[in-house]
Write a structure and sequence with these properties.
There is one protein chain. The chain is α/β, with parallel strands linked by helices. The chain has two domains: 208 residues, Rossmann fold (3-Layer(aba) Sandwich), CATH 3.40.50; 178 residues, Glycogen Phosphorylase B (Rossmann fold), CATH 3.40.50. The protein contains 16 helices and 14 strands. Helix 9 packs across helix 14 and helix 13 crosses helix 15. The radius of gyration is 22 Å and the shape is elongated. 44% of the residues are buried. This is Glycosyltransferase involved in cell wall biosynthesis.
Length: 402
């Protein structure tokens, strides 16, 4: 089967590792794939000798990667893009391009519902789970959109949250007359049976010299590692670290590994906004900032292998990939409670309130002062990683995608 992959995810920055998860998953599936995009080949697919410019249906650019060696990036009718909005392009162009290029199945990791018989990953479920974080009416609009998509009997919607699936229309075929907040839900039992819940996917655990990694990132000392987009409460991590240092005199360090767009204004790198915040920070001598532009977006995972604990505290978390990554990397995790991972991670993480430095500091202190508790977290993480390892979940993805 030759897959048609919605390239939108790789054209837009994904601040939670979702693009990384999707790419490693497709690598593991090993199916031939053509990526359909609205612009030039993204940098993620560019390589020496590969074209990163505009590509047409007639002359697709070749991309690289393990299973991607047979993949292509197509930009269908670039001139048309200036005349119609993206949604119009998708609905008018995708089915025709798939027919012309002999592509078998549309897979969208971005929630686009533009081709019949597709597999649509719905990650952006915050309007369903946490309505207070979304504009009014967003949950109803989401239900209406996917109810319409599921009118096609070959379409399946794939989610990472059981609770979100229940609010949208569950995978057991039971009808929902109304959602818990009173809005309309999918009431067609046959359509509801094509809403499925899948776990996040993380590849095999790397083999690493943890002492060498600790020396590289922590100057030979223990360190907490914070990661997330630059808009996701890095200041909270710094405030929590201040409280930790004032209450527990130690040589502990803090390493900040931002993923997202710059916060320091135009022309700055993603780490520069944080560097500006460090200028007046009392414990700045104990803080290191990793610049993703210089070290790569995956560097935080390497740093996590030597970390005393990982801090991941966004306002909301809709994937659970970082939770599974921490478990696989055998790193204790302090994470926001507002996460889909609470549905399956149980006590394998220390859950804290988002936007609450005091809560984060208490968790840091508990891990530091109670080594037995930290060991229990590590043990629970290993059990979670074993239960949700790549060999355990890949067949579930194969069942739906290929």
């Amino acid at each position: 089967m030759h897959l048609a992959i919605d390239g939108t995810l790789w054209e837009n920055h994904s601040p939670d590792g979702y693009d990384r998860m999707a790419r490693s998953l497709l690598d593991a599936l090993g199916q031939p794939a053509t990526f359909l995009g609205r612009g030039p080949v993204p940098a993620a697919f560019a390589a020496p000798g590969a074209s990163a410019g505009r590509a047409s249906v007639a002359a697709p650019a070749v991309i690289v990667g393990r299973a991607f060696a047979e993949g292509r990036w197509m930009q269908a009718e670039p001139n048309l893009m200036e005349k119609i909005r993206p949604a119009g392009w998708l609905k008018r162009t995708i089915p025709r391009v798939m027919t012309e290029a002999h592509l078998d199945r549309w897979i969208s990791f971005s929630g686009n519902t533009s081709a019949p018989g597709g597999r649509i990953f719905l990650k952006d479920v915050a309007p369903l789970l946490w309505p207070d974080t979304a504009p009014r009416g967003a949950a109803d609009a989401l239900r209406a959109r996917y109810a319409e998509a599921l009118e096609d009997p070959g379409t399946e919607v794939l989610l990472f949250s059981k609770r979100a699936a229940e609010l949208l229309g569950d995978g057991a075929g039971r009808s929902h007359q109304a959602a818990s907040d009173g809005g309309p839900a999918i009431t067609n039992g046959a359509a509801a049976s094509r809403v499925h819940v899948l776990p996040p996917y993380y590849g095999p655990a790397p083999v690493a010299d943890r002492d060498a990694i600790k020396a590289e990132y922590g100057q030979g000392k223990e360190y907490f590692l914070w990661t997330g987009s630059t808009g996701d409460h890095w200041r909270d991590a710094m405030k929590a670290f201040s409280q930790f240092k004032m209450r527990q005199r130690s040589h502990m360090r803090l390493v900040l590994a931002p993923w997202g767009a710059p916060t320091g204004g135009a022309g700055t790198s993603p780490g520069e906004g944080i560097q500006e915040g460090l200028a007046t920070y009392k414990f700045r001598a104990d803080v290191t900032v990793l610049d993703p532009e210089k070290r790569g977006p995956e560097k935080w995972e390497h740093a996590a292998l030597g970390a005393y604990a990982l801090l991941y505290t966004p306002e909301k978390e809709e994937l659970g990939w970082v939770t599974l990554a921490a478990a696989t990397l055998e790193t204790p995790l302090i994470q926001t409670k507002r996460s889909v991972a609470t549905e399956w991670a149980g006590d394998a993480a220390e859950w804290v309130d988002p936007g609450d430095p005091a809560s984060i500091a208490e968790a840091m202190l508990q891990l530091f002062k109670d080594e037995a508790y930290r060991s229990r977290l590590l043990k629970r993480g290993r059990a979670l990683a074993e239960a949700m390892g790549p060999e355990k979940v890949i067949n579930r993805y194969l069942c739906h995608l290929s």
